[in-house]
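hey so i finally got around to running the thing on that chain from the lab meeting. sorry it took forever, my laptop kept dying and i had to restart like 3 times. anyway pasting the input first so we r on the same page abt which one it is
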Amino acid sequence: MTAPRELARVLTLRDLVLIVVGTTIGSGIFTVPGSVLRQSGGDLGVALVVWVVGSVLALLGALTFGELGGMLPDAGGSYTYVREAFGPLPAFLLGWTLFLAINTGSAATLAVAFANYLGELVPLTPLAHNLAGVAMIAAVAAVNIRGVRYAASVQNWSTALKVGAILALAVAGLVLGTGFHHSGTRVFATPVSPASLSAAGVALLGVLWAYEGWQDVTNSAGEAADPQRTFARGIGLGTAALVAIYLTANAGYVGAVGAPGVAASDRVAADAVHALFGPAAAKLVTLVILVSIFSAANGLALTGPRMYFAMARDGLFFRSLSQVHPRFGTPALAVAAGTVWATLLALSGTFEQLFTYVVFASWMFAALAAASIFVLRRRRPDAPRPFRVPGYPVTPALFIAAAVAIVVNTIWARPVQAVIGLGIVATGIPAYLVWTWRHRRGRE
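ok and heres what got predicted. didnt touch it at all, straight out
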């Protein structure tokens, strides 16, 4: 059987929307609202503004990437945009860092979190804990090697289950809860000052972390059916759906336990269920979180390997990773490579250090990818653009400014970790030189 050279375009608009939602919603919305409210000084009004600002920034990014994805609907997403605008080296550093730490580190984080939450339902020995995390990664890999249509169906159902559970809890909190009548609720009672603005900025980082992942769908543009028509709509509608889900969930949490209860909790979803339905029902939250984590991990496996596939196709990564499986039509070896590295990170425990050091780099590369829109508009003014970002150039400029601010704040607040993280990114330079040399030799 002859292997196909290209990935099949089988992802529908619904698939794209649910990839955005499912990949982004992991465990953050079940835990982050408490820390956001605390960092907002316990002021519900300030916390709401922080969530709205974070939501707007995510939408600005989605609109920007929507134009880029419609113009360059190929596997690789941000890697492709940066390559076309700034050349192969920065594009390689982006893909290298995602493979080395960001995408695989996220998968390792989810694997360990899955085992931790599973341990709340059934006792796990240290060995069983490790095996549970590895089994989750392996199951996700098997689904994604089996076929993109198969993986997308798993993503759609798991995303629908967790979104349904989140919205059901939110409605219950709003209907059954009395939290909005809590006497300790403060709304816009915090005076505006440099200290309060700084605290709100820290809270915004938590919100942006909860939104981390919406841009991963760009890696799957090469498998979108009719991408010029569906891609921009998919990433835009998916991000808008996230905004609605997150704001509704926050309202439900406040309705269930009140603003002081949210601020005091690091497990606000479980506390909300406990308050509304009793302690026995709180276990249901653990099941929902397990589904949510699996869905997020599946989304990472459905998107990230497409970047490794694109790099290999350009001769800048292991050549075998550019192969399309002859039977399943997936970049099976690219999926397997990411899975093996994520498993090693999870078992070694080094993913925490790697992820902490380079997570800010994802924003650095997001800013670079978004900046591609300015270069490509100037360099390719006549290129087909089925979707043009509204509000250009302000829309992408605001997103880039926010991403740069996050990077600068990280470097200022954590200079040692930032320098180490930049050093990890820089390890891609000798790797790039090796692969370009091998690629040139292969063509001679």
